């Protein structure tokens, strides 16, 4: 299964912590992680394998949205920072909309992500 991971700047540390807490489960289930560029670099620095796409504002969110539409990505974990403005909001909304269109589970916070990851 392919899971996309994305985190806004204020949530990247939370994403790394979440993945480290679930590292063994991800490995045992053979989960392939993909991510936007900057999030992926933080995850790699923590010692996890991830395929990185472009940074979110440079098109990474759109690249992952395309994979959702193609049926390649089975889950999206996107730790959003609701208190900040983001110049790529249209891409974020497109990704979220496509998760709904294609019935792909989407978690936007650690509590929901924890429930989803345990169901894999």
UniProtKB/TrEMBL annotation:
Catalytic residues in the record: 61
Residues reported in the UniProt entry to bind substrate: 8, 12, 36-39, 55-56, 88
This enzyme's EC code(s): 4.2.3.3
Catalysis: reaction(s): dihydroxyacetone phosphate = methylglyoxal + phosphate
UniProt GO MF annotations: methylglyoxal synthase activity
Domain (MGS-like) ranges: 1-120
Keywords: Lyase
Functional summary from the UniProt entry: Catalyzes the formation of methylglyoxal from dihydroxyacetone phosphate.
Family: Belongs to the methylglyoxal synthase family.
Annotated protein name in UniProt: Methylglyoxal synthase
Source organism of this protein record: Wenyingzhuangia gilva
């Amino acid at each position: 299964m392919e899971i996309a991971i994305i985190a806004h700047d204020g949530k990247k540390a939370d994403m790394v912590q979440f993945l480290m807490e679930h590292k063994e489960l991800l490995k045992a289930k053979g989960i392939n992680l993909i991510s936007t560029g900057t999030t992926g670099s933080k995850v790699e620095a923590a010692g996890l394998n991830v395929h990185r796409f472009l940074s979110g504002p440079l098109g990474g969110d759109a690249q992952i949205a395309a994979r959702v539409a193609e049926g390649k990505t089975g889950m999206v974990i996107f730790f959003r920072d609701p208190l900040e403005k983001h110049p790529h909001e249209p891409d974020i909304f497109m990704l979220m909309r496509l998760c709904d269109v294609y019935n792909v589970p989407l978690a936007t916070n650690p509590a929901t992500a924890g429930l989803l990851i345990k169901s894999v």
